[in-house]
Design a protein that fits this description.
Layout (H helix, E strand, L loop, with lengths): L5 H14 L32 E2 L6 E3 L2 E6 L10 E9 L4 E11 L2 E2 L1 E5 L7 E5 L2 E2 L4 E8 L4 E9 L7 E11 L15 E2 L4 E2 L6 E5 L7 E6 L2 E7 L1 E6 L4 E7 L7 E8 L2 E2 L3 E3 L5 H9 L36 E2 L8 E2 L13 E2 H17 L22 H15 L12 E2 L1 E4 L16 E3 L2 E2 H18 L4 H20 L22 H15 L2 H9 L19 H10 L7 H21 L15 H19 L2 H14 L53 H7 L22 H15 L7 E11 L2 E10 L5 E9 L5 E6 L1 E6 L2 E6 L5 E2 L4 E9 L12 E6 L2
Parallel strand pairs: 14-22
Antiparallel strand pairs: 1-4, 2-3, 3-12, 4-11, 5-10, 5-12, 6-9, 7-8, 7-11, 13-15, 15-19, 16-17, 16-20, 18-19, 20-21, 20-22, 23-24, 25-27, 26-29, 27-28, 30-31, 31-37, 32-35, 32-36, 32-38, 33-37, 34-35
The chain binds ligand 9MR.
Amino acid sequence: MIRPPAWLALSLSTALAATALALAPSPAAAEPAEGPEQIVNGTFDTGTAPWWSTANTALEHDDGRLCADVPGGTANPWDVIIGQNDIALAKDETYAFSFSGTASPGRVAKALIQLPVDPWTQFLAVNPELSVSGNDYSYTFTSPVDLPNAQVVFQVGGSETPWRFCVDDVSLKGGAEPEVYVPDTGPRVRVNMVGYLPGGPKKATLVTEKTEPVAWRLERDGETVAEGETTPRGVDASSGQNVHSIDFGSVEAAGTGYTLTADGETSRPFDIADDLYGGLKTDALKFYYTQRSGIEIRDDLRPGYGRPAGHLGAAPNQGDTEVPCQQGVCDYTLDVRGGWYDAGDHGKYVVNGGISVHQVMSVFERAKADGTHRDGDLDIPESGNGVPDVLDEARWEQEFLLRMQVPEGRPHAGMVHHKIHDAAWTGLPLLPHLDPQKRELHPVSTAATLNLAATAAQAARLFAPYDAEFAARNLQAARRAWAAAKADPARYADPADGVGGGAYNDNDVTDEFYWAAAELYITTGEKEFRDFVLASPHHTADIWRERGFDWGNTAQLGRLQLAAVPNGLPDRARVRASVLEGADKYLAVQEAHPYGLPYNPPDFDWGSNNLILNNMVVMAVAHDISGEAKYRRGVLEGMDYILGRNALNQSYVTGYGEVAAKNQHSRWYARQLDPSLPNPPKGTLSGGPNSAIQDPVAQAKLRGCKPQFCYIDDIESWSTNELTINWNAPLAWIASFLADPLPAGDVKVTYTNHGQWPEGFNTQVTITNTGKKAIEGWTLRWSFLGGQRVRRHWNAELSQDGAAVTAKNERHNRVIKPGASVTFGFIGAEAPGPNPKPERFVFNGTLAR
Ligand code: 9MR
C-alpha cells in the first residue's frame, strides 16, 4: 500500500494514544521495528490463509489486502472477529504491533493480542479509528507472559449497520525467532522405498552440496551389483536442495534389500520385484469400507477397525435418516444415510463424492476385460454376492448420491443437495457413532446435480449386467439431474458456507456439464449429449493444467472417459490424440524435475499428492490408448515420489515403505491423540505438501517452507496431512493400472459387428498371429459396454461374467501358426444403449517351444 507522509503518521499516533485502553502500553510513533516477524502472511500477497473469521463474515482477498463485509445488527465487538492464532509471546519481551486499515463507512474497531481461551486476557487492546481513506497504526507493548499460542484479533462487531473492513501489512515484531522445525529426513540418497519393477525405470535423487558428478554404487548382500556416476541437476526449486539424479535402470535382477550409496550416504533398503503394486491396489480400495457411514464396520473383516454404524439415527447421532435443511433452505427432511465420510471429518459432500465414486468405478471400468477385480477380493460384507467387490463398494456411495436428489413435487426437484454435515465443527478424536452434532442438508447446487448426472450415467452401464433395476434407476436419476441442471445452470455453492464442513464451492461448472454430457453420451449414445459434448469449449481446449484435475476441475474426467471408453464420437481420434498430448506435457515436466515429479508449480496445492496422481492417470490412459512404454514408465517414476523419492524421504501411503505417513488427520483413526484408537488403515494416502499451510501445526512448524517441505505427519495438520475419499481414488486407480498384466502382444484382433437388429447382434472375431512362434492354445477376453449378452456362438467356447467375455479355442483351432488366423463368432442379445466395438483385448496364448 501507499504509505502516508510522516507528519500524518505522527498526528495519527497522537490521536491513537487517546483511544488506547488504559491497560494497554503506550502506542509508539512509527519506529523501525526490531526482532523477528511473528505474524504469518500479514501482507496478504497471495491470499488470506491462515487468517480466520467468525462465521457471519467471509474473508476476501481484495487487491493484496484482507477485506470483509461486516454485517450490521450485532451488539458486541466480539460478535464479528477476524484473527490469527498460535502467535508465540515471550515474557518481558517488547513487541511492535502495526497494521494499516480502512473502514467504509468509518468505524472504530478493536485490535487485541490476547489469550485464545477464556478468560481471554488482553496483552494489548487498542481501538483504532478506521476511516475510508485509511491509516497506518503502530503500538508497542511488553508481554507479561510466556505463551506459545496467543491470538491477534480484530473485533469488528457491534455496529447497527453493515460496513466493510480492510486490513493490510499486519506485523508483530520482536521476541524470539519462531521455533525452527527440522524434519528428520534420513539418508541423503532418496529412493522408492517400496521398490522398482524389474523392467521399469529406476531413478533416485542424491541431496548434496557437490556440483560435479559423484560415484554411486548399487549393493545387495554386501556385493556391488552396479556402479555409475550421478548427474548434477542444480538447485531444485520444489525443495531448495542442490541435487543429483541417479539412473540404475540397467539393473533388472529381482531381489530384496538393495541399497544405493553415493557421496558417503546409503539409501534405505528397497526391492526389485514384479508384484509391487498388487497389495497396494487392494489396500487402497479396502480403504473405502472403513470410510463407510450408516453401517457397522465388522472387526472380522477389518481387524482393529470394527466400530458401530455412524449416523444411522441412533443417539447421540442426530442423523442421517431424517435430515432437515439448514434454516430457510427447505421444509422437508431426507433420508441420506450411507455413503462414505469425505475425509477425517464426518461430512458427506456430493461434489467430492462424485469424483471419488467415478474414479473407483473407473478402476473397474478400465480393466473390465481383464477380470482383475473380482467378487470377494476386498473383504466387504457384500463379498460373495456375485458382483465384483469394487462395484459393491462404489454402490455404497452411489446409493447415497441418489438419496441427495430432491424428490418430485418439491422446489428444485431433480437438483441435488450440495452436501450434508454437522452444524458446527467437532473436535478430535470423535468416532462417527458418537458425533452429537445436528446434521443439516445444504442448498442444492448445479455442480452437485451434474456430479450425480455423471456418476449415475456411468453406474447405469456398469451395473447393467448385474442389476438391471439399479442400472435403470441410475439412468433415470442421471436424466432428471441433467434436465434440472440445464434449467438451473448457475446455482453455485456459497463460499462462506464452511462451518461444520467444507464449502466445496466452485463458480464455474461448465466443466461439470462437459463431464456429465460425456458420461450420458457414452451410456446412451443420444444426439443431445453428443451435440453438447461437441459444442463444449472443454472438448477442444488444452485442459491439461500442470496443477492437475480434482473435484473442482472435472473437464479432464470427461475427456479421459471419451478417450478410454468405446463410443461413437465423430472426432474420437482427435480426442484420443489429445490425451497423448496431455501425457506428453506431464512427461516433459517430469523429465525436467530432479525428483521425477510430473507436477512442478511454484507453490504446491492442497492435496498435491492427489494432483500428482491424477497427472499420472492421464499418462496411464495414454498408455492404455497407445501402448507406448514411455507413458507407463512415467507413471512408475511418479510412484517413486509418492513412495519415498522425495525431499522428506518418506512414503505418503500408510504401511508402504520403511518410513511412511501414519498420523493422517482423522476423527476416528486418531491414535496420535488416543492410543486406544488405530492409525489409518494400510494403503491410506496423505494429501501431502501444501504451500498454503492453513492449519496451526503447519503454521507453527513450517513457515517459510519450500513446497516439498510444507508437510508434517501430525494428526492436527489438516491442511497437509488429511486422508480423503477423492485422494485415495487415483491411488487405487494407479495401483490397479500398475498391478494389472500388460495386454499381450504378437496378435492382431479384428472384432466386427456384422448385423444389429432390435433384439440382437451378430459379431465375428479374427485373431491373427503376428509373432514368430506358433500359438498352441489360447483365450481372448473383452467386455461389452453395458448389459449385452452372448447367446449362441461358434468356433470358440464363449463364457460370460458380468460384461466380460472369455473366448477359448476349440480343439480344431487350438493352433495358430505365425501369420495365420482363426475366426469365431457369436449372436448376442442387445441391451439398452449403444454396443460399440470393444477396444481392450486380453490375449493369453501358449507359445510353441
Ligand atoms: O480438498 C479440499 C481442497 O481442495 C480445498 O481447497 C479445501 C478448502 O475448501 O477443502 C478441501 O477439502 C476438505 C473439505 O473441505 C472438508 N473435508 C476434508 C477435505 C480435505 O481436507
